[in-house]
Prior knowledge:
Blueprint: E1 6-9, E2 15-16, E3 33-36, H1 39-51, E4 82-84, H2 86-92, E5 97-101, H3 111-124, E6 129-134, H4 137-149, E7 152-158, H5 163-171, E8 175-179, H6 183-197, E9 200-201, H7 208-214, H8 216-229, E10 242-246, H9 251-265, E11 274-280, H10 285-291, H11 317-328, E12 332-337, H12 339-353, H13 359-373, E13 383-387, H14 415-429, E14 436-440, H15 444-456, E15 461-465, H16 468-478, E16 482-485, H17 494-502, H18 505-508, E17 512-516, H19 522-528, E18 534-537, H20 543-554
Parallel strand pairs: 5-13, 6-7, 6-9, 7-8, 10-11, 10-13, 11-12, 14-15, 14-16, 16-17, 17-18
Antiparallel strand pairs: 1-2, 1-3, 4-5
Bound molecules: pyridoxal-5'-phosphate (PLP) and zinc ion (ZN).
Amino acid sequence: xxxxxxxxxxxxxxxxxxxxxxxxxxxxxxxxxxxxxxxxxxxxxxxxxxxxxxxxxxxxxxxxxxxxxxxxxxxxxxxxxxxxxxxxxxxxxxxxxxxxxxxxxxxxxxxxxxxxxxxxxxxxxxxxxxxxxxxxxxxxxxxxxxxxxxxxxxxxxxxxxxxxxxxxxxxxxxxxxxxxxxxxxxxxxxxxxxxxxxxxxxxxxxxxxxxxxxxxxxxxxxxxxxxxxxxxxxxxxxxxxxxxxxxxxxxxxxxxxxxxxxxxxxxxxxxxxxxxxxxxxxxxxxxxxxxxxxxxxxxxxxxxxxxxxxxxxxxxxxxxxxxxxxxxxxxxxxxxxxxxxxxxxxxxxxxxxxxxxxxxxxxxxxxxxxxxxxxxxxxxxxxxxxxxxxxxxxxxxxxxxxxxxxxxxxxxxxxxxxxxxxxxxxxxxxxxxxxxxxxxxxxxxxxxxxxxxxxxxxxxxxxxxxxxxxxxxxxxxxxxxxxxxxxxxxxxxxxxxxxxxxxxxxxxxxxxxxxxxxxxxxxxxxxxxxxxxxxxxxxxxxxxxxxxxxxxxxx
Length: 555
Ligand SMILES: *Cc1c(COP(=O)(O)O)cnc(C)c1O
Ligand SMILES: [Zn+2]
């Protein structure tokens, strides 16, 4: 245990030593308390101490409420990679976009931080039976660590939790209790059950080890951004301008702000990031209260979202604390997006960045798009998005029709004729009949982005040209069904290409989508009238928007 650790009551300020099994303030009875450390002492030794430790959650032990690392419990939590989101950044015109990939935790969500630290603290306190209520991921993660710690776990789950997640909880040996009702109702039943049996129950954001675990995200981000971008302006470590996360109870951002505040107080970073917390529109009590500038949220009694992970209808005091922390540091925003926007984000994250995420995590990315378009997030700012969890398996309503092509071929023994059958079946898939598209741009990054958009979401035969002259030759030779054309190019620009193609009846009618980084004057727009079918601004379209235009023009 860090020798200088104590807890401070958020209501009366009373300070006591930290004891896991005594969650309430002995003076006023409040359950809302926070851990404090001797930050000056830690700041002095930390950089040297950290240099020799592995990149995992235990490296921050001086600021964790534990006697020490629990290496019997560990499954390799923390130390998740920070990944640059190149394509998404280009599509949004926001180049400094980073993804904290919390899917890479042992049970594939960022709840692993909370679970390992809390279970370690329970173990130190001699607890061997524990109760939780969960929207899914907390139960999965606590189950894994309870198994390693030999703690009997009772998990109360709302019936909204996908069956695949319930089975995942059960396989670890946790007793699953399914409540046909909302998450808030499941919490009430769990609490009553724990009370009757005299068992400890997870108190969410009131559980000190939970908040302390979440703040390690900030510590990792500061170290990782420093490695990627160099130190802050006046400090050895760097903080991002924004931290974006989807929220249900709001524990993540509360911990993350606390973490950055500690680094700030220790002189390690020069700012605390603005926070963007995103909810699902059908269950957005915090977003509503934030917009109305209220410091308490009105509970949503019957959540209307398919995203069960985010179905906390009554955030209670957690909202008030989150809001207060945001206002006391750098501010930010709490907003919401629809289920449809989140499902759409799942597609472009997987297809454009190689990240398959669960709907709850996608809510943060859909929120990013919304906030960039509203100019709340500025294009020069450094943005970190917490990719909070992986979906496994892909839930049925996400993919829609036509995502697989089946090839069936006859089974008549002879190897040769089997092969012929396969080839005949392949030709039915129509690989030789794909629409032909020419991509014309002098910037290789843009060509790569457009190519990726088209190849990931449809079947096309693609051609590329790097300047106007090449483009004209290419079009005359290959007769594509569609041209995606840049305007500003060396040698021969996009306007000249259009003029040249108009001259021959062979090429005059090929539809053109102009994709340009340039703000066009009315005269320039006039010049293109009658030539092009669509105009798209670089840095301001998402992959599926370009694709919708392509599909409409090819029809
Ligand atoms: C728990 C969870 C959230 C919400 O986190 P809070 O900070 O507790 O509101 C978001 N995404 C995923 C995948 C989660 O498991
Ligand atoms: Zn008190």
